[in-house]
Amino acid sequence: MIGNSVVMLDVDLRNISVDVHVVCCYFMDISLCSRRQSASVQPPLSQAVGYVIVVVLGLVIACANRAVMMVITKVLKKTTGEDNKKTEMFMTANRTVRTGLTASAVISSWLWTTAMLGASLVGYNYGVAGPFWFAAGCSPMIIPDAHTSLEVVRIQYGRVAHVVLMTLCLINNIFSCANMLLGAAAVISAITGMHIIAATFLLPVGVTVYTFVGGIKTTFLTDYFHTAIILIIACYFSIKAFTVEEVGSIGKLYDLVQAAAQRHPVSGNQDGPYLTMTSKGAILFGILHICSNFGLVIATPSAASPTSPSPWALGTIKSSLALGLENTSFFPTYPRRMTSVEVSNGLVLPYAAMAIAGKGGAAAVLLITFMAVTSTLSAQVIAVSSILSFDVYREYINKAASDRDIIRASHFGVIFFAAFSAGFSTMLHCVGIDLGWTLYMLGVVTCPGIFPMAFTILWRRQNQAAAILAPILGMATGIGVWLGTARHFYGTVSVSSTGEILPCVYGTVASAFSPIVYSVVITLVNPQRYDWAEFRKEKLGLDRVDSDVTVGEEQGAISSFDPRELKRWGRIAAFWSIATFLGHWVLWPLPMYGSKYVFGKGFFSAWVVVGIIWLWIAMFVAIFYPILDGGVQQMVQVGRALRGGKGGSSALSITDGSGDVLKVEEKQ
């Protein structure tokens, strides 16, 4: 049967989906694997387009990355000392990624497929409050001087705590990758007819190739180009939406959404309209989502220098278009509404794009979906490979691992996790789990480590037993509450009941906050007083001279390990974290929720205009700020070096274990 599949691939790509489907069911013996996308919506693009985008474009990007990065790597190695064959460069880019490129990568990380598809999903379900609460859940984090945050746990509490938190981090990344792949594969399948399982397995291929070659700095540079394309297309959609005859203006869109509320009032919204912040479902989702995102940030083990809105606008516009145009003949599902399966699979965004731009809109969504999932998946793959190489291989398999050994282990980690995440996502699909289910329940598994990890860094009294037991008990509590409330509210524990908003909110909150109680109670029995000076005695790098070297201007460079810099950026991060929380969670939405305000046409117009302006600003920041911040400077520096050192000397900043900086002048 497998041989026939290969032959058929050469003869006719259109039949590959049937063979992949049969193979899946043969090996997994799961009857639910036969559940297919609704056949009533004809894919606007052919399967060949899907395979070209997923396979060919992915490999082209990987090969282009390879060629470009080979040139860049050789130039930078010659002029600035950057060597991608060194572990520090592969995993952390020597912590030299500047604020501009980091800003682009951060924007990219919130442009993952879940954000674009999920914001439209909750907008369709709850109205304008859904995309707002989706965008509001974001928190910064500072990681001390380590390759992964797990190294801090190992140094402070030992190997048992290290293994526990490492397991939680791996679970976190597995579910977040599955969340992305499920949504992206469903969209690609709906747009092209490509089998969803084929899409799930083929999407990580290109990611694996270019991540394997380039390491984390390649993911930053690739993020830059992917983010630029995604934001340009998103800005195009923000204008295109109001140029089609059926919409024409923001005011007309307001009328269309109000008419949709008359046909299908929203349960839990004030008086049933979509245009209100007084939405019980949306605010429950907001609580769930901020906890989940905090868990994702805390338990994502990749490290970068601390010196370094789109879901709101895109989700609001696209969900409003889907609601307003759903009863018109050019909407893909006409004359029926979107089914709950279609909504949960994240098809609100592509259907709305198809309604206003036809095949061109479908192609644009296909492109940004591919760009988003590959860009974010590469970062996740690097994060997991760092765990497998530093926290597993170096710590438990080969303590005397050389730089080359760890690079080899990280390469294995890249390949292994890409394949595993595809297989795990396929398993979830075959038992009936989709984007909506994972979006809601994600916090149950990502949140138990939030406060134990925070206490590890901020509270020296937390003892070893608390660091080990609190996250385990928190996970057990969260899962128990999640399943128990599903049984209580819906009478059964099933895929359907456990994917509802209420059980997921209760489970997420329990997972997030119960470890506080466990940690404090266990610590009070026998509190410790950890001396932070002990941390500086640890040598985390492999080769201090080769790994911890950064190149600066003649005046010298300040090390990324400088305690004064860490403290300064810590204060800045804390200020903006508090300001963002107060603005996005208190001052802006809660008065609107409490006043039970329903948007008027003028207010809705202002709401949409502000969102569009925010989106366009994000585009300009992501595209131009990295060039202005360090990009031009580094190009000038490289150019001088290649011309033979015109313009003076360069200084190497070499840091020792205490964070002191030694300047070594080198005349070109």
TrEMBL record:
According to the UniProt record, one GO cellular component term is: plasma membrane
Entry keyword Transmembrane: yes
Q: Which InterPro entries match?
A: DUR, Na/Glc_symporter_sf, Na/solute_symporter
Identification of the protein by name:
Urea active transporter
Query: Which keywords fit this entry according to its UniProt record?
Result: Membrane, Transmembrane, Transmembrane helix
Give the record's family classification: Belongs to the sodium:solute symporter (SSF) (TC 2.A.21) family.
What organism does this protein naturally occur in? Answer: Aspergillus ibericus CBS 121593
Chain segments annotated as transmembrane: 48-76, 124-143, 163-188, 194-213, 220-239, 281-299, 377-394, 406-425, 437-459, 466-485, 505-526, 569-587, 607-628
Q: Does the keyword Electron transport apply?
A: no
Output the Pfam families linked to this UniProt entry. SSF (PF00474)
Q: GO molecular function, one example? A: urea transmembrane transporter activity
Q: How does it sit in the membrane?
A: Multi-pass membrane protein
Task: List where in the cell it is found.
Answer: Membrane
